[in-house]
Specification:
alpha/beta; 16 strands; eight-stranded mixed β-sheet; 20 helices; globular
Length: about 525
């Protein structure tokens, strides 16, 4: 056993300060997540209940196996925009009849469940995860279609929703739709393109155009039931495969559909017997300092996440700003890359490239723990080949075929974000701690660069440099970049899959690793491209 030792003193003033800062950030994030849970607010929630309907999260809870977890995704979508936090849809992964499924459920208390630009982006992310991990997709629909005032941002990209449904089906990944109310206009194609459809008597309404539109287009008089009611679709059009008596009955039928899928994972089961870390997960709250200019030891994080705190480090004496090594999480073997002192040098880049290749040779998923300011700059490092060595690491990440999971613990700046498998490099999942920040560079550095460029331009033009305006610019730019690099801003734009409590890291990783093994886990078989040596 190579059990990691801990140097954490949870009675120290530094630990207490770090923990207090983390708990404060968690409280702030919880307040924003509560807005998503509240949906459209008391007025619309009460109106929904008065119609005898369940709220969106109540529907999900009934659908899931009792006592099983639900990994909600992108809960802060649309944060900081004109739209409601959550994007009027709930997405996440849960267990239904013993099968892990992707669930996408419209929230009818938010503008009638209509889709805004963030609804669409959040749904696309859920579809991407379902495809990559072979997750049956269950859609819980009650939506008035597109949010018409923003149709210019929805109509053209929104067609991908229907393409995704048909491609999932073509890939033999089941798609199931339960219709709880309206599913109109373009939304009618969601059940129309799903493998299995459940509608509710006197509740479900599915039509391309409602009675007013039909009247305008054709002059025909019609009503909701004859045009798109559940009874009609079950008995005449054939769009409904099952006719439910009420919402609980629809959910019961949906569960039975999943039970009959005969669904099997294509990846290997956990190969090891899991054991909890020997160090306390509660201590994860006090590891990361609020000022990310101060480094922290990622071994302290690893030792509180992996099975038995057991970690076999790879090249521990070489490229020491990057920790690499082997462990297991909930019985699943993993390789881990974790930034130790922020900057990535040539040695770290080469070490990472080799380690990623080794993981691909033995079909082992990779976990990236971010706290990097990027690749080292300066004449000495440029002359030593930092560009080609950084490119080597990015090449290895780009062409690695084993599943990747990224967690942003602290800073994730510049090309270091790319080398550590940021969003653009398609990790299966990417989560952030409340302490995380991500941008092209740190706020002070970015403002300083702009100041230097402005000063040089003034000198070249032979005009005096305005020091007062420069100071004002620096304050404004630093404030803007700081705000735009914080996790709630990035999560609101769906650049991550959610902000997690550090204490939940091991649980979230375990859930993700289980999901990942729904599809085959296989490393790259050549095809890395040209490494510049």
């Amino acid at each position: 056993m190579t059990v990691l030792r801990s140097a954490i003193d949870d009675r120290s003033s530094d630990f207490a300060a770090n923990k207090a800062a983390m708990l404060s950030k968690l409280e702030e994030i919880s307040a924003e997540q509560a807005k998503a849970i509240a949906g459209g607010g008391p007025k619309y929630t009460q109106r929904h209940r008065s119609r005898g309907k369940l709220l969106v999260r109540e529907r999900i809870e009934l659908l899931l196996d009792p006592g099983s977890p639900f990994l909600e995704l992108s809960p802060l979508a649309a944060w900081g925009t004109e739209f409601a936090v959550g994007g009027s849809v709930v997405t996440g992964i849960g267990v239904v009849e013993g099968t892990e499924c992707m669930i996408s459920a419209s929230d009818p208390t938010v503008r009638g469940g209509t889709s805004n630009p963030w609804t669409v982006r959040k749904t696309f992310r859920a579809h991407d995860i379902a495809v990559a991990n072979r997750l049956p997709l269950i859609s819980l629909i009650e939506s008035g279609g597109a949010d018409l005032p923003t149709q210019k941002e929805i109509f053209i990209p929104g067609g991908r929703t229907f393409r995704d449904l048909t491609r999932l089906s073509a890939a033999r990944i089941p798609t199931i739709t339960l219709v709880f109310g309206n599913s109109t206009a373009g939304g009618a194609y969601v059940p129309g393109m799903s493998d299995h459809v459940v509608m509710i008597r006197e509740r479900s309404k599915v039509f391309l155009g409602g009675p007013p539109l039909v009247k305008m287009a054709t002059g025909e008089e019609s009503d909701d039931e004859s045009l798109g009611g559940a009874e009609m679709h079950a008995r005449q059009s054939g769009l409904a495969d099952y006719l439910a008596a009420d919402e609980p009955d629809a959910i019961r039928i949906g569960r039975r559909i999943v039970a009959r899928l005969n669904w099997r994972k294509q990846g290997p089961p956990p190969g090891l017997v899991p054991s909890p870390p020997i160090h306390e997960e509660e201590q994860l709250l006090g590891i990361v300092p609020p000022d990310l200019r101060f480094p922290f030891d990622p071994h302290e994080v690893i030792g509180r996440v992996v099975d038995g705190s057991d970690f076999d480090e790879f090249k521990p004496a070489y490229g020491t700003s990057l920790v690499t090594g082997w462990a297991s999480v909930h019985g699943y073997p993993v390789g881990i890359l974790a930034n130790a002192r922020g900057v990535l040098f040539s040695a770290e880049s080469q070490k990472a490239a080799q380690f990623i290749q080794l993981a691909n040779q033995v079909d082992t998923p990779l976990i990236f723990l971010h706290n990097t300011t990027g690749y080292m700059v300066g004449a000495r490092y440029e002359q030593a080949g930092i560009i080609k060595h950084g490119a080597m690491m990015i090449n290895a990440v780009s062409n690695s075929a084993v599943p990747h999971i990224s967690i942003l613990l602290g800073a994730s700046y510049g090309a270091g974000h790319y080398g550590m498998c940021g969003r653009a490099y398609d990790p299966r999942f990417l989560f952030a701690w409340p302490s995380a920040k991500s941008a092209v560079m740190g706020p002070a550095q970015l403002a300083g660069v702009l100041s230097i460029v402005s000063r040089a331009a003034a000198a070249a033009a032979g005009r005096p440099f305005d020091e007062e305006a420069d100071a004002t610019m620096k304050v404004m730019v630093e404030s803007q970049i700081e705000a735009e690099s914080l996790p709630m801003f990035l999560s609101g734009r769906i650049y991550d899959d959610g902000i997690i409590d550090p204490r939940d890291t091991r649980t979230v990783l375990g859930l993700c690793l289980s999901v990942i093994h729904g599809s085959p886990v296989q490393g790259a078989r050549g095809g890395y491209g040209v490494f510049r040596m």
